[in-house]
Amino acid sequence: MLFHLSSDNILFDASLYYFVGIFDIYDREDTKGAELHTYDPNNEKDRENLIIKYCLDPYNKLSYRHRYKLMENLHLALNKENFDFHSYFEDDPDEYSTMAWDETEIVTPRGFFADIYRLANEVWKDDLQKASLEDPSTW
Fold first, then answer.
1. How does DSSP assign the chain, residue by residue?
2. Do the domain assignments include residue 9?
3. Closest CA to 78 of 132, 125, 19
4. 34 pairs with which residues across the strands?
5. 55 near 72, Cβ under 8 Å?
6. pLDDT tens digits for 92-134?
7. Number of domains in the chain
8. d(CA 53, CA 2)
9. Cα–Cα distance between 119 and 128 in angstroms, integer?
10. For a surface tag, which of 52, 55, 94, 132 has the fewest beta carbons within 10 Å of its beta carbon?
11. Are 41 and 101 in contact (CB under 8 A)?
C-alpha cells in the first residue's frame, strides 16, 4: 500500500487534483492569484511554463512511486472519452476553494491535462521508468 507522503496510515489518493490544486488561490487572490494571472492557460507556451513550474511536483516531495500512481490515474482519465476534467477547475465555496482560472476560462481542460501528461512523461522519465520495474501491488 502506498501511503500519503506525511503519513504511515493514510492511503495515498492519486487524485488528478494533485496536478492542479496548486492553482487554488483562496484568500491569496492578491498574491498568488496575481502571479498566476500573468499566465494565459490557453496559450501553449504559458501553459507549458505553468505545468513545469507549478504542476510537476515543484517542491520535489513526491517519490517515484507517487509520481507513477498519479500518472497511472491521469492516463486512465485521458482514455475515458467523457471524463470530466472541467470539475478540477471549479471553485468550491464549501471547501474554501477558488481556482486561479475557473472551468469556463480554460478552453480545453482535457488538453490542459494532456499537456501535463506529456510534460510529466518527459520530466519524470527516470522516476516513471524506475517505478515501472517494480510490482505496484507490493507498495
1. -PBPTT-SSSB----THHHHGGGB-TT-IIIIIHHHTTS-TTSHHHHHHHIIIIIS-TT----HHHHHHHHHHHHHHHTSTT---GGGG--BGGGTB-BSS-TTT-S-HHHHHHHHHHHHHHHTHHHHHHHHTS-GGG-
2. no
3. 19
4. none
5. no
6. 888 888 999 978 999 999 999 999 999 999 999 999 999 999 9
7. 1
8. 26
9. 12
10. 94
11. yes
Residue whose C-alpha cell is 500512481: 69
All three cell numbers of 89, joined, read 477547475
pTM above 0.90, yes or no: yes
Q: 85 in a domain, yes or no?
A: yes
Give the residue numbers spanning the domain of 80: 17-133
The string of pLDDT tens digits covering residues 22-56 is 999 999 999 999 999 999 999 999 999 999 999 99
Please, which residues have CB within 8 angstroms of residue 64's CB and are 6 or more apart in sequence? 124, 126, 127, 128, 130, 131
Any residues with CB less than 8 A from the CB of 25 and at least 6 apart, and which?
32, 33, 36, 98, 99, 100
Residue 98, C-beta contacts closer than 8 angstroms, at least 6 positions apart: 24, 25, 26, 29, 33, 91
